[in-house]
Design a protein that fits this description.
One of its GO terms (biological process) is ribosome biogenesis. The protein is α+β, with helices and mostly antiparallel strands. Among the domains are: 86 residues, K Homology domain, type 1 (Ribosomal Protein S8, Chain: A, domain 1); 92 residues, K Homology domain, type 1 (Ribosomal Protein S8, Chain: A, domain 1, 2-Layer Sandwich). Helix content is 47%, strand content 14%. α5 packs antiparallel against α6 and α10 runs antiparallel to α11. The protein is globular and about 70 Å long.
């Protein structure tokens, strides 16, 4: 008769293990018995999520432009070029400025087309210049700058002085009439205009050089182009001449103004 030793105990342990596996509490039974299972071997099949393998979006570097030094040049963002709403402007041409516009037409349309990216057309029948934004126009204020440029030329300013309105943002035009300062008629009005202009335009040039502005005398109208403070100084000199102040005192004031301008800059 065989001795009931290890064989019976092994059989009982195997029966217990099989019963635990069938009941689904194998892991808990082992932990209760003190035999810990490594965490990397415990996998709960019901809670695992399926892994979806996606193909890598393999955009080759052939799409990138490479410069001479080997650095990639990426294409610009399409949204960087902001769309400008289509606008149109019409600037009428006075009769006395039609011939100067015709002679300097190449200098007039070049900054509008090349710098501001506008479309320009001359309407000969109605005597006006038409402006329109294009697809290449990126500056929202381009149509307004072009309108100011043409109006400055129509007022009588030189083409180079009018072009400064496109390059600088702090330039303005102020216009007023002599009758706004003092009511003058006949010879009194002519003498006031003569005092502003001076002999051979000497007084007008002195005002322009001292205040760094540009002055246009169009009969009884006066137009001043320049910065805000510069226009104020030039207007004070012109008003003093209209009111009858001697030109010698105006020259003295202009010397003081020019010396202050030099110290400032």
């Amino acid at each position: 008769m065989p001795a009931p030793t290890a064989l019976k105990s092994n059989v009982q342990e195997n029966d217990n293990i099989s019963s635990i596996e069938n009941s689904g509490s194998y892991n808990s039974a082992l932990t209760e018995s003190g035999d810990a299972i490594p965490e990397d071997l415990i996998i709960d099949v019901q809670t695992t999520m399926p892994i979806t393998l996606t193909k890598h979006d393999n955009k080759t570097t052939a799409e990138f432009l490479i410069d001479e030094e080997g650095r990639p040049q990426f294409s610009g963002d399409q949204n960087a070029m902001k769309k400008v709403v289509s606008e149109r402007r019409a600037v009428s041409v006075p009769p006395h400025r039609f011939t100067p516009l015709k002679n300097t037409w190449t200098k007039v349309y070049y900054p509008l087309v090349d710098h501001l990216k506008l479309q320009v057309k001359m309407d000969i029948k109605k005597k006006r210049v038409l402006l329109r934004t294009s697809r290449q126009t990126t500056d929202k204020s381009a149509i307004q700058k072009g309108d100011d440029f043409l109006k400055a030329f129509m007022l009588g300013f030189d083409i180079d002085d009018a072009t400064a309105l496109l390059r600088l943002d702090d330039l303005y035009i102020e216009s007023f009439e002599i009758k706004d300062i003092k009511t003058l008629h006949g010879d009194h009005l002519s003498r006031a205009i003569g005092r502003i202009a001076g002999k051979d335009g000497k007084m007008k040039f002195s005002i322009e050089n001292a205040t760094r502005t540009r002055v246009v005398l169009a009969e009884t109208k006066i137009h001043i182009l320049g910065g805000f403070k510069n226009i104020k100084m030039a207007r004070e000199s012109v008003v003093s001449l209209i009111l009858g102040k001697p030109p010698s005192k105006i020259y003295g004031n202009l010397r003081i103004v020019s010396s202050r301008m030099k110290e400032r800059f």
